[in-house]
């Protein structure tokens, strides 16, 4: 003969069972709705929660957990259920529906149950299993997706931000939210099972966490959404992770081959950046604005972590900096852009930096062997140049014009730093000059030149004409003739007309004893000088006129203007 359990298994073979109970009349099970996936079946000792309708064989209902609005909860196989149901739910899956027909001797027998169930009555239970757990259960986790690289895992005392969907074991949702859930891990702020299930996750990982009731809300449940003794299923997406003890993290991506100087506190820096959260979603970028972010370093003009991260950088360097929220925007975040307690990731590219105390930097790249004459203030020079940003972006070049520029040094004709950089050069000399913005185009920039940009000039001096001080048209290069008038009076007729005056001045220039202002018409200059001495406007200079003029200008020492 068959044992009782053998008979049970025989009678539940297939989806619908039509076998007739034997003489012992065991339970008859009709599994009329079985889930496609059944990760776990009810066994003796398990706790179950199920809804049921109880009817007699004629269909008359005698009991219903559905109508009471509270499913039945109990332990299987320990005599806490009627024997027929103890056997009838064995092997069930969550969300399975089955009809269990229980003979009297496995139900209420010859006694019945009060006025509700008569003696020797066959009972029919239509059961749907909602939950199953065991006191030996542990938190179950299953990773659904995970980033290829996972440099950090959630640990106890970390602060995390995550999205989740919460369902009961039978897939009934009980909680979900648009925003993240933000909390410490392993410090008692969460139910025990969630504290445990979140450990070891990566940012960007999606994980299913199944929590037995005794590690969740136990017998109390939670309001009307989580029943007593409910297993909870969470699908979690980890958004953010940090620890209150975290400092900034720096990953150097690219460093120039040559780096002669690094940023320090007090420097002014221009850099591009992409700002993202740890999950890779972006919140800001300077590239989209086509404008660098410009700021002083270490002086509180930017968030604390960025102030620190911007130190020790080279021009052209690229690095990734990760800022914990306590060194960024903290628990409050900022506006609708950055949520509270968000870790920020910045990919930085340094364009240039300088210090307000910087002078120009000069590096001579080529110089003639003979260099007897160098440029200085008041000289008229012609030069070739390329002007670039420090990242190599060309702004201007003299090669773009038909003729190289000509300027007088010290005459405020070019930016101050370039003027200084052109001094002390020999004709044929080449040099590189770095000009900080306060000696360049300043905070306002110029056409084609960004605000506060450090400029890189490549210079070559093409021509040099020694100049005269501002306000003068002619200077003596040594002592002037004394007395002056007899030297000017070339034909010794005691008067000097314009032609004679012109001849005298040209002789001084030719012999190197005097110099006219370069870059101007020599004839025009000499005529102006003559008119300045011809006090009575009679077309000639006499000794008395020259004497009066010299006395007026005696305080000008060597630079008497004729």
Terminal Cα span: 144 Å
Give the % helix.
Answer: 10-25%
Average pLDDT, rounded to a whole number, is 90
Q: Please state the oligomeric state of the protein chains shown.
A: single chain
How many distinct beta strands?
A: 28
Largest sheet: 6 strands, antiparallel
Q: Count the helices. How many?
A: 11
Low-confidence stretches: 1-24, 555-562
Report the principal-axis shape: rod-shaped
Strand content: 25-35%
**Rg measurement, Å:** 48 Å
Based on helices, strands and strand pairing, what is the structural class? alpha+beta
Note the topology.
Layout: H1 4-11, E1 28-33, E2 47-56, E3 61-64, H2 65-68, E4 72-75, H3 83-88, E5 97-102, E6 123-133, E7 140-145, E8 159-168, E9 173-176, E10 181-184, H4 192-197, E11 206-211, E12 232-242, E13 249-254, E14 268-277, E15 282-285, H5 286-289, E16 293-296, H6 304-309, E17 318-323, E18 344-354, E19 361-366, E20 380-389, E21 394-397, E22 406-408, H7 416-421, E23 430-435, E24 455-465, E25 474-476, H8 484-488, E26 496-497, H9 498-511, E27 514-516, H10 522-533, E28 540-541, H11 543-552
Antiparallel strand pairs: 1-5, 2-3, 2-4, 2-6, 5-6, 7-11, 8-9, 8-10, 8-12, 11-12, 13-17, 14-15, 14-16, 14-18, 17-18, 19-23, 20-21, 20-22, 20-24, 23-24, 25-27, 26-28
Helix pairs in contact: 9-10
